[in-house]
Amino acid sequence: GEMHEAAAIPLRVIDDEHLERITLGDRRLEREVLQIFVRQSAMMLERISGEQPAVLVTAAHTLIGSARGIGAWRVADAAERLERASREGRSEDISDAIADLKAASLEATAAIAARLAKPSH
User: Fold this and answer.
1) How many CA atoms lie within 13 A of 48 on its CB side?
2) What phi and psi, each to the nearest 5 degrees, are found at residue 117?
3) Is residue 10 over pLDDT 60?
4) pTM score, two decimals?
């Protein structure tokens, strides 16, 4: 379907334009929002490891919101798949989605760390 063509386009890890719109170009706010995402995604990933579908749904849902907030589309996409698979109780899809979500979150966290290491201008 159309979904797959879109997925083939390499996404930037963090959508700068989106982040700038959300934070109105305020660098201090941007850093704060990014740090919150890093903390929250780490917390949710911990919660996700070996949990009940109900917990997965909630954790995935939280991550969708925070990932969308900073324009981490790949994280949001994996979290959406996890939420769907958990709702429907498809364990094979759940473990695939968790693996993708972990990879995407690590990638986003690394990109954010690099970004936060840069002095604000």
Assistant:
1) 29
2) -70, -25
3) no
4) 0.81
Over residues 15-36, mean pLDDT: 94
Instruction: Report the percent of the chain where pLDDT is more than 90.
Output: 68
Contact 37, 115 (CB under 8 A): no
**Residue 121's pLDDT is what?**
54
CA distance 85 to 96: 10
CA 82/CA 106 separation, integer angstroms: 16
Q: What share of residues in the chain are helix, strand, coil (percent, to 5)?
A: 80, 0, 20
- The 8-class DSSP code of residue 13 comes to S
Q: Who's near 100: CB < 8 A, 6+ residues apart?
A: 78, 81
Residue type, 56: L
Two structure tokens written together for 99: 């693996």
Read off the pLDDT of residues 57-73 as tens digits, 9 standing for 90 and up.
999 999 999 999 999 99
